[in-house]
Amino acid sequence: MPATDDEIREKYLERAIRELNSLTRELQACDACPRGGIMPVLGSGHPQADVFLLKHAPMPSEVEEGVAFYGRSGTALMKALKRLQVDPLAVYGTLCVKCPVGDPSLADEGCVARVVEELSIVQPKVVVVMGEDALQVLNELDVPLAKPLEYVPGARQQLTPSIDAIVTPNIDECLDEEDAKRAFWSAFRVLGEWYADLPPY
Asked: Which pTM was predicted?
């Protein structure tokens, strides 16, 4: 008896959950970065999210909790997503540098390249790249069929044939100053337009 669409979707979701759990275990066991006994900062969100948020390195609150976008940036993003009517359950957020090293340039290249695995597992429809450092890392990664992105905040670009991209300023650098907040919002709200254009099926 052929599988229904719902059953097929369920199987893909189960696989994505398994693969993200496996990636989490590998990251927790990794000793490539000089992070001592501190756990890595892991991505979080829906395993098959439409929206993939990417920033460069963790802030202290994220290091403390071990979760990307925990703290001020996460709170600001939840408010922004609500205002844009983007379902937060359709979002996955992660970092280029997952280990809490003092200097992000000390992060192991193989560890940073795990972003490619996350993209492959989640298979988002859009990547929101936050900041020039994250953009540079993404452009240097070996994402299959990827085109280089430009730092043009708010412009919709194509990363791969199946993944769009929107570049914004780094949210962590935009939370304390009004002009910077406006610059981030101006670029990020393009996500709302993109999300509204998604077919409802």
From this structure: 0.93
For the record, the structure tokens of 178 come out as 């009004």
CB 87, CB 162: distance < 8 Å: no
Q: How far apart are CA 190 and CA 80, in angstroms?
A: 11
Amino acid in position 65: E
CA dist 148 to 41, 65, 66, 71, Å? Answer: 26, 33, 30, 30
Cα gap 103→134, rounded to integer Å: 14
Neighbours of 151 (CB within 10 A): 13
Residue 188 vs residue 8, higher pLDDT: 188
Q: Check residue 2 and give its pLDDT.
A: 66
Q: How far is CA 114 from CA 38, 143, 184, 194, in A?
A: 18, 11, 26, 26
